[in-house]
Design goal:
Helix content: 40-55%
Strand order of the largest sheet: 3-2-1-4-5-6
Structural class: alpha/beta
Order of helices and strands: EHHHHHEHEHEHEEH
Number of helices: 9
Distance between the termini: 11 Å
Length: 216
Amino acid sequence: MNVPTGAVLFDMDGVLIDSETYWDRFEDEWVFAEAVADGAPEHDEITGTPYDEIYDYLDAEYGTTVTKAAFAEAYEERAESLYGEEVTLTDGIRELFDELRAAGRSLGIVSSAPKAWIDIVRERFGLDPLDVVASAKDLDAPGKPDPDVYEHAAAELGLDPGECVVIEDSVNGVEAAVRAGAFTIAYRATHNAESDLSRADAVVGSPAELREILLG
């Protein structure tokens, strides 16, 4: 397996923290149950995408019963306690970050979450220093599954995306990384057990497997 030795770029939700379990519950209990007008969306259709683009997608495909502003406000309100109190850090992540730094690898978080949400996680779990932090919400470009946010993060480091390794958990996130040209590792967990992650270059199910690919 020819794994690049440049930067390692981590998606946040579902990779660094167990937040997708909480977001899935929020979607089941409010988004799909109350904000969608008709039909039964699947989590994989929207996971990994910025919430404003989630609204646009759901509105076009299923219709919505709330305004875009109300939709955004609901996500923002849920995020405060979710990131500040409820989520936990994936086992072994802090140690993996330390090992990657010791090996001279650049580290980054590349997420569809707003920068403020990323900053809560960085501070709460002591993930700094990071070489790049990129939020799709800050770009004048489409979010995942489009590749722009990964292309942007690589450019911030002075690298081609092909010199980077990306760790993702969602179908949309994997697609974004693959389309950017990065070496893509899909992280399999409970929340995405049934997701089709076959577009990734490798699929792992534990921090130990991830470490083996990244550091050998």
